[in-house]
Amino acid sequence: MQKFVKTAVAALSLAAVAAVPALAADPIKIGSVLSVTGPAAFLGDPEAKTLQLYVEKLNAAGGLLGRKIELVTYDDGSDAAKANGFTKRLIEDDKVDVILGGTTTGATMGMVPLVERAEMPFISLAGAVVIVEPVKKWVFKTPHTDRMAAERVFADMKKRGFSKLALLSETSGFGQSGRKETIAAAAKAGIEIVADETYGPKDTDVTAQLTKIKGIAGAQALLVFGLGQGPAIVTKNIAQLGLKLPHYESHGVASAQYIQLSGDASEGVRLPAAALIVADDLPAADPQKPVVTGYAKAYSEAFKAEVSTFGGHAYDALMIYADAVKRAGGTDKAKVRDAIEATKGFIGTGGVVNMSATDHMGLDVTAFKMLEIKGGKWTLVD
User: Fold this and answer.
1) pLDDT at residue 21 above 50?
2) For the CA atoms of 27, 323, 350, 377, what is the dihedral angle to 10 degrees?
3) Residue 91 clears pLDDT 50, i.e. is over it
4) Dmax over Cα atoms in the chain, in whole Å?
């Protein structure tokens, strides 16, 4: 009799589960590892907030294919070594359907072997070209690459009549890749690198390296390749030393927080960045205008803060995934992977994305705008 009761209860339970709508019983699980705290927090914090905001918006609109989205996020504290462990947890314990994140290149590269082995769709929010070159079957990314940043800087330098560059790069994964790509791109662009210095991501003073650069005759411009708080320290040191070289930064500082941390020292700094941070300055006919102004309005209203390109990278990753799920007709990982790879004409905050089997980012150098900081604000150079 006791056995019959257990069987009957089990049958009723299964019937009840079968009757529950998919929206309540079978959520789509999106996993994320981000640098919400630590030196890279001004990248990771807006990424986390963006995912939270737009998952809520998607759920309010009925979810994806009628299923609720569940967001599972871990903070690596800007410690790339922790990203691997959190990725393993997302795959093995949380059983997520996709992973969005890897705020930094170091974190991302620590995650790559795990997602490849697990055959897990992964869209990185980090910048280095090494993430997608060579192409890895399950790995995609939304930000522009360090190579593109160097190429865009060199194009602007040549317009200004500069051909000799002093390079100062961070020893992080992003900085190392940026240095490598800058050196390679310089040779093709006819730019001579007359100084090649590095600094650590946790350094609190970079005057020694800048003093060397100041003493080198012939340098016509300075490019700093780093992310997080480091470039703001470098920028302040440049002002303290009275180093008057035209100053370029990479897209790794495309956030209002860089200007806030650098203060008046950032005046005149130029960098390549996505259209998002100058959304209101775009021509009305620009196809990105509705996307970037819509995102900027939603983010600033929700969090009472200015947008950054980093939050935009998270928006693009989430929307590319959502679009792929719809085209795949479900969350089957292999089908979703194929759908992501087939993304064409997607208009995001970073540009118009056209992916392929040989391009898991889908952007070209024309997606970058050249910006200059004037009066404490971003302005369009061209």
Assistant:
1) no
2) -50
3) yes
4) 94
Neighbours of 6 (CB within 10 A): 10
What is the side-by-side order of every strand in the sheet holding 139-141?
Answer: 69-75, 28-34, 98-101, 122-124, 139-141
Coil, helix or strand at residue 224: strand
Tell me the sheet residues that pair with 33.
74, 101
- One DSSP character per residue, 167-188 reads EEEESSHHHHHHHHHHHHHHHH
Q: Helices then strands (H, E): number in the chain?
A: 13, 14
Task: Give one word for 40, left, alpha or beta, with left for phi > 0 and alpha for psi -120 to 50.
Answer: alpha
Is the peptide bond prior to 134 cis by the omega test (within 30 degrees of 0)? yes
Evaluate if residue 220 carries a pLDDT over 80. Answer: yes
The overall average pLDDT reported for the chain is: 92
Are 223 and 196 a contacting pair, CB within 8 Å?
Answer: no
Q: If DSSP codes are grouped into helix, strand and coil, which group holds residue 380?
A: strand
**Percent helix / strand / coil, the chain, rounded to 5:** 50, 20, 30
- Rounded Cα gap, residues 309 and 253, in angstroms: 9
pTM over 0.85: yes
* Buried b or exposed e, range 285-324, using 16+ CB within 10 angstroms: eeebbebbeebbebbeeebeebbbbbbbbbbbbbbbbbbb
How many CB atoms neighbour CB 187 within 10 A?
10
- Residues 302-320 have a mean pLDDT of 96
pLDDT tens sequence across 107-159: 999 999 999 999 999 999 999 999 999 999 999 999 999 999 999 999 999 99
- Is the distance from CB of 96 to CB of 30 less than 8 angstroms? yes
Average pLDDT for residues 75-80, to the nearest whole number? 94
156 close to 381: Cβ distance less than 8 angstroms: yes
Per residue in 294-304, pLDDT tens?
Answer: 999 999 999 99
> Of 205, 196, 207, 173, whose CA–CA distance to 40 is shortest?
173
Q: Provide the 3-class DSSP secondary structure of residue 373.
A: strand
Q: What pLDDT, on the 0 to 100 scale, is given for residue 255?
A: 87
pLDDT at residue 228, rounded to an integer: 83
* Beta carbons within 10 angstroms of residue 3's beta carbon: 7
| Cβ atoms 129, 177 nearer than 8 A | yes
